């Protein structure tokens, strides 16, 4: 779930908040409202003179600066200076600015977050987007405007008319409901005519919608003008749009075109403005009020709720931003019919004497492979690495996984021993087989060194053997290799495994609201954990350090480092006791952590520590475990890690909502042997750590615009 901030809690801010109460993907976590009296919150939200919505929410005031709504915690800030707002302290990277104050790039940047959406037309060249018109052109702009309510209503109609009939010229008048900026009684005002009471008058006014329109639909520049009339109603507006079309047509043909547009509704009932209160569709055509002047000139009447619908449009635009780096490239949203599909998998399975000892990585890829095959592709070409061979060797051949894949897919797979070669291309062109498996990619030096190899034949072959590319090799996505980052194909996507891995890691890095996170960090040495612990300490609530890390901490006197990470969000707890000796072959002694002598090392965790750890697990909602608690390769020292598995199982049985995420590498391999269905077991240890450290992977950048 995406947690956002809301700056401003007036008419639009209130509508946005109410619409997001039951939203499953976005929630408002922080509201900045300098003058807001929290004691009036319940009446403010539950009652409204315009919108009659169901009050299916429960409010609990915590203190002057926070409240719960349906048990979700929301914080109230009260600061008029955006520079002083500490959004990031609440893990907020996206805000909606509903104040109408921060309407330039320079001002919006004062919020110090990654993304800002203005709920009004910008006063500079800030990009404007309207859902239903140009939202699909969004290209990761950090600060954008949702334009005006009038613009949101008219541009889907204009876009439809352009696409189907062409527009020569157009003009419009928006008959607009009153807004909070207008006066209820006559008063002095520098603006012409708006000093007169909205209760008693129809007031000609200006609109910036026409200039906003051609920023969103550039081909309309010089072809559209507009004006506004303010009328004494408190909500719902009407656009009187007059167009001259390039192609001769009829009103019925126009209505038919509108009815096929999911952003437009055609209404044939004789309704009035109040009938459209709380509607979410941005463009509702009043069929009975439209006129045809001739075969090219038409009057189109468009209703819109300038509050509720606008808020809905803004939320949809926010969802577009949130999904920008994911959904458009997700395998679920792609078609592979009649295509030659290259799939990069991580089939680097553990082996002993050329026999696979754990096929978890193979099984994890099957949903993606089946999804592609269900689309009836022309060919499915699977590629992976295995081990780190310096040269071609039979013991590192991927032929070892062929039978496993065939058994899971229930389909024959043709093995291509030449890998990325001209002979492989010939085989692919001539074979009637549907599924192929390429030989180990690391038999080609270009795989790991492609940026340093000019005119690489392997690179050219890779980018020409298929029409599209799918990456489901999460465990390799932190590597700048040819098959990960050297893909030139425009049609690319990522699979279910990658999606599941990222979703699990986002739980750890704080994207689950109101969930307490515990990270259990074991492993052999501290050296490779320093950056991980430093970054985790800023994102999780508790960190428990155990395993061989304790040896490094004590012997290297890393108190300064511990102090540094302790200054961050996480509470740090060290293993209290364990089994230690001079070497693995010597019978260990059970000692307290700080009794460790210079010539000794801890090889497993102690019982007292396990009790403490069990208590921590009970008190936290999400558990991330990376690194075994002992030298599990030796049967004498795997007891602590086995006990931890049982503790985690018991915790889940006690609380079904508890989530347990296991890091990849040795930890994942060890846990997999016990066949328990934890929330997620990662297939990539190094990739997991890289993602936690940077909130990104080099291999994911391929799926960003």
How would you describe this structure in keywords?
705 residues; alpha/beta; Rossmann fold; 8-stranded mixed β-sheet; 33 strands; 28% helix
Topology, element by element:
Blueprint: E1 2-7, H1 11-20, E2 26-32, H2 41-46, E3 59-63, E4 66-69, E5 72-77, E6 94-97, H3 105-108, E7 115-118, E8 143-145, H4 149-164, E9 167-177, E10 203-205, H5 209-216, E11 224-231, E12 237-245, H6 251-259, E13 264-267, E14 283-286, E15 291-292, E16 297-304, H7 308-323, E17 340-345, E18 351-352, E19 355-356, H8 360-373, E20 379-383, H9 402-409, E21 413-416, H10 422-430, E22 435-438, H11 446-449, H12 457-462, E23 468-472, H13 482-485, E24 492-494, H14 496-508, E25 517-521, H15 530-536, E26 542-545, H16 549-555, H17 559-566, E27 571-574, E28 577-581, E29 589-592, E30 601-605, H18 607-619, E31 622-626, H19 639-654, E32 659-662, H20 665-672, E33 680-681, H21 685-694
Parallel strand pairs: 1-2, 1-6, 2-5, 6-7, 7-8, 9-11, 13-14, 17-20, 17-23, 20-22, 21-22, 23-24, 25-26, 25-31, 26-27, 31-32, 32-33
Antiparallel strand pairs: 3-4, 4-5, 9-12, 10-11, 12-16, 14-16, 15-16, 18-19, 28-29, 28-30
Helix pairs in contact: 1-7, 4-5, 8-9, 15-21, 18-19
Brief overview:
The protein contains 21 helices and 33 strands.
What do you see in this structure?
- The chain is α/β, with parallel strands linked by helices.
- It folds into four domains: 2-120, Rossmann fold (3-Layer(aba) Sandwich); 149-308, 2-Layer Sandwich (Dihydrodipicolinate Reductase, domain 2); 327-494, Rossmann fold (3-Layer(aba) Sandwich); 502-702, Phosphoglycerate kinase, N-terminal domain (Rossmann fold), CATH 3.40.50.1260.
- The strands form six sheets. Strands 3-4-5-2-1-6-7-8 form an eight-stranded mixed β-sheet.
- The longest helix is centred in the N-terminal third of the chain and has 16 residues, at 149-164.
- The two termini are 22 Å apart.
